[in-house]
Design goal:
- The chain is α+β, with helices and mostly antiparallel strands.
- The protein contains nine helices and 26 strands.
- The strands form seven sheets. Strands 10-11-13-12-16-17-18-19 form an eight-stranded mixed beta sheet, with helices on both faces. A four-stranded mixed beta sheet has the order 3-4-1-8, with no helix packed on it.
- Strand 10 and strand 11 form a beta hairpin.
- The longest helix is centred in the N-terminal third of the chain and has 19 residues.
């Protein structure tokens, strides 16, 4: 622990006591951020296979339906137990028998919403009954597809990976009646989450509803091709780079499948506009990472990419890949991140990637960096932002205006705690404001004029400790926030 702030020449004895008390609060707060929670399944459906291994899946493990670290232990009385250290707060989860094909359902074996539990951090046990399994009680298993959504193939062969995968397609409302019309195309990953809550892990993107609404408002329409993720193979397929802890390494083959096998099939069998200027790709999280890789690797095929909450943490090679690929053709790339994702770290990663794009020659009109202060690493966030991103990528001209680079709060600081650099984003109303950084006892350390773009401030010369960030406009304090600098 660096105690430089405690020996700062501006500190007095009273300040020392205050700071030490704050330090202890933060220390115990961090120690209690994770605590033990026991899940006790007291009853399972009568048709549960005797050798079933039940898994826990939720936002805390990326909704991995077959996570071996989330396997229950079967007790002698036939119940199941699992104890884990989980983050305090609202938990969303479901149970599977090792994959999302074997997810729990309601008493009729039909879709049931995510379970929720507001965890307060104390040692607790949740008593749970599983009422049914979708694959065992759900009737024919035939999907009741929404309007305009179709299954291209339940087992489309991927020769580049020697696997099969379900492929979905959304066709614009006038596809059958406007027989001479051709359409732009958007390729999207994690198709289970795009169109139907029944097949989703944690809610759907509502892609079909959104595009149909835009069509009714004057959009010319777009074909969306959705590729199911491979569950256990998802991480491997969604990164060309290997992470020693998590896997990866098959992303090049997956991207090659999209370009060499899937796209030619779609162009041959559906009325697309096959040229690159009408072709885009989009995904979130690891799906954002593979979208990033694919659009750069195949700039002659794709001209647009929606990169939502990308997992740039997975490999630093994502940045060097931009430097190696460079800017080969005109592009539109929409980067999206939320202020509540991993303590703001996703926002910082995306900001660094945005600057990397600019460094290799992408114009500011080609790359859009959108930060939403309330954004979480969740389907609801990506669903909400899909419409604006789609409209910007394909330059859709509707009556509603889309404002780039906005935040929900007028002022957004990130990260906090700060390691070396502080980022601040403000909306246009406060572009003439002044940022002042003060020590706890009121001493001004730095002062800066703000603008309506991302502001970056180097704090390397400041001592570790607690500071106050204050924004004033026309001499009036409009925002105040505590900051921790901790290297």
């Amino acid at each position: 622990m660096n105690f430089n702030i405690l020996t700062n020449k501006y500190c007095c004895k009273h300040t020392f006591t205050q700071l030490f008390a704050i330090f202890l609060c933060l220390l115990f707060s961090s120690l209690s951020a994770f605590a033990q929670l026991t899940f006790h399944i007291t009853k399972t459906p009568s048709n549960t296979p005797a050798n079933a291994i039940i898994h826990l899946a939720g936002g805390f493990n990326g909704w991995n339906g077959g996570d071996t670290n989330m396997q229950f232990t079967k007790n002698q009385d036939g119940t199941y137990s699992l104890t884990k250290n989980l983050t305090i707060g609202l938990l969303e989860f479901k149970f599977t028998r090792g994959s999302w094909e074997t997810v729990e359902g309601n008493e009729n074996g039909e879709f049931r919403p995510n379970r929720q539990f507001n965890y307060n951090g104390s040692p607790q046990t949740i008593e749970i009954e599983i009422l049914g399994w979708e694959d065992l009680d759900g009737g024919s298993g035939i999907l009741n597809l929404p309007p305009n959504v179709h299954i291209v193939d339940e087992d489309f062969y991927m020769p580049e990976l020697d696997r099969n995968r379900r492929i979905w397609i959304y066709l614009p409302p006038d596809y059958d009646t406007a027989s001479n019309k051709h359409y732009r195309t958007l390729y999207m990953h994690d198709a289970q989450n795009l169109f139907m809550s029944e097949t989703s892990f944690a809610g759907e993107w509502e892609v079909d509803e959104t595009l149909t609404k835009l069509f009714e408002q004057g959009d010319e329409g777009c074909i969306v091709v959705g590729i199911d993720n491979g569950e256990g193979e998802r991480i491997d397929e969604y990164s060309p780079w290997v992470n020693v802890s998590y896997g990866g390494g098959e992303g090049d083959e997956y991207a090659n499948f999209l370009v060499t096998t899937l796209k030619p099939y779609i162009d041959e069998n559906y009325r697309t506009k096959p040229e690159r200027e009408y072709t885009g790709i989009m995904g979130s999280s690891m799906g954002g990472l593979i979208s990033h890789y694919t659009v750069l690797e195949y700039q002659d095929v794709f001209s647009k990419a929606g990169i939502f909450s990308p997992s740039y943490w997975f490999s630093g090679e994502a940045y060097t890949h931009v430097l190696a690929s460079g800017h080969q053709a005109e592009m539109r790339i929409c980067l999206l991140s939320g202020g509540k994702e991993d303590g703001g770290s996703v926002v910082i990663d995306v900001e660094n990637m945005y600057e990397t794009f600019l460094e290799v020659g992408f114009g500011m009109d080609e790359v859009k960096n959108v930060v939403k202060a309330d954004g979480e690493h969740s389907e609801w966030f990506w669903a909400r932002e899909f419409s604006d991103s789609y409209q910007w990528l394909f330059e859709v001209d509707l009556d509603t205006d889309i404002e780039a680079n906005t935040v929900e709060k007028p002022i957004l600081f990130y990260p906090n705690p700060v390691i070396e650099k502080l980022y601040l984003q403000v909306n246009q109303s406060f572009q003439k404001g002044i940022l002042t950084i003060r020590t706890i006892d009121g001493k001004i350390v730095q002062s800066h004029s703000l603008n309506n773009k991302s502001n970056r401030f180097d704090l390397q010369k400041m001592n570790n400790g607690f500071y106050m960030l204050q924004v004033t406009l026309d001499g009036k304090l409009i925002h105040s926030e505590r900051m921790v600098l901790a290297r």
